[in-house]
Amino acid sequence: MGFKGIVSKGKYWRSVVVLGLVFTVLYNLISIFFEYGSFAFEQYYRDHIAGNGLKYGIGQIGAALFYGLIVSYGQFRAREKREKNSK
Description:
Layout: H1 2-36, H2 41-49, H3 53-86
Helix pairs in contact: 1-3
């Protein structure tokens, strides 16, 4: 595997987490805006998070990781193909 393989694994997982978090934040902001017509964070909290905090948190983390895995895999696979074709 070598050092490059280890570094790329670290970059992959960092990419998964970052893309997942960005997706989650943007998704929730867009959802709040579409549902309430403005950024009504307090109302969104009362309707979706209060009383269901653990369930909501687990769902958001799961969705973020799933999205991050898919997008990061696609990015790293495309880079791998480009590098293979350039040789």
